Amino acid sequence: MSTDDDRAVIRLIIADDHVVVREGLVALLEDEPDLRVVGQAGTGREAVALARQHRPDIALLDITMPDENGLEAARRIVAELPQVKVLILTMHEEEAFFFAALRAGAAGYVLKGAGSDELLSALRAVHEGGVYLLPKLAGSLVQDYLNRHPQPSTTEPLTPREQEIVTLISQGLTNREIAERLTVTINTVKTHRQHIYQKLDLRNRAGLIDYALRRGFLHT
Predict the structure, then answer these.
(1) CA angle (89 as vertex; 85, 93 as ends), nearest 5
(2) Domain with 30 in it
(3) pLDDT-derived band of residue 1, with 50, 70 and 90 as boundaries?
(4) 99 alpha-carbon distance from chain centroid
């Protein structure tokens, strides 16, 4: 019996230049009742075209692809179709790729060597408005980023509650999980999120993570 009675079907496109990898992902994802693959691509350019055609909930993109890599595709998709969330699925563990993905607007980053449960959790978290930070890399990456981007001394524009919500969002919690954590309604969380984005003049979660890192809201 499902414990997610209200869970909506998440529509996905998959972009990876290896056919075997794509077929394996399709087989995995379509075993889940709340996930449906609506398109497959072998290049970044094809991924952008599929995103335009299908308007999926999530674009699951590899980084290393011919014609146009996944980061370039992510940047174009986020800019043109901001309602489409991007999750990067890659073999690259290097810090530079992770930060490049955030700058491109990706809402999450998962290694191909991760377990299927981790990938499924990342997809669902991203769909519900969360951000998925790779557990294996997040600690060292956050510390490295803080070392290279010292916390500014300007006055903090956010209230303590808004700072708390920014921290929870950056840690990958969904609106529902934040509401449960803070004992408030989901609508209250959504209102806080809207105010936060307006105050900081941000458009996406990647920018919010960047802000949280620079302000020292995330700690290793």
Answers:
(1) 125
(2) 10-127
(3) very low
(4) 12
CA 10 to chain centre: 14
Q: Are 85 and 130 in contact (CB under 8 A)?
A: no
Tell me the CATH number at 49.
Answer: 3.40.50.2300
Same domain, 100 and 186: no
User: Strand 10-15 and strand 58-61: pairing?
Assistant: parallel
The number of folded domains in the chain is: 2
Contact call for residues 65 and 50 (beta carbons, < 8 A) = no
**What is the DSSP code (8-state) at residue 91?**
S
Domain boundary among 104, 127, 150: 127
Backbone angles phi, psi at 66, to 5 degrees: -75, 170
Question: pTM higher than 0.85 for the full model?
Answer: no
Entry field: residues in the chain: 220
Same domain? For 85 and 147 the reply is no
Whether residue 93 is found in the same domain as residue 182: no
Written as six digits, the tokens of 190 are 């959504």
Q: Which two tokens stand for residue 99?
A: 């930060």
CATH number of 209's domain: 1.10.10.10
* Cα(32)–Cα(102) distance, integer angstroms: 27
Alpha-carbon gap, residue 198 to 200, rounded angstroms: 6
- For residue 153, pLDDT over 60 is answered with no
Q: Are 111 and 91 in contact (CB under 8 A)?
A: yes
220 found inside a domain: no
127-147: average pLDDT: 69
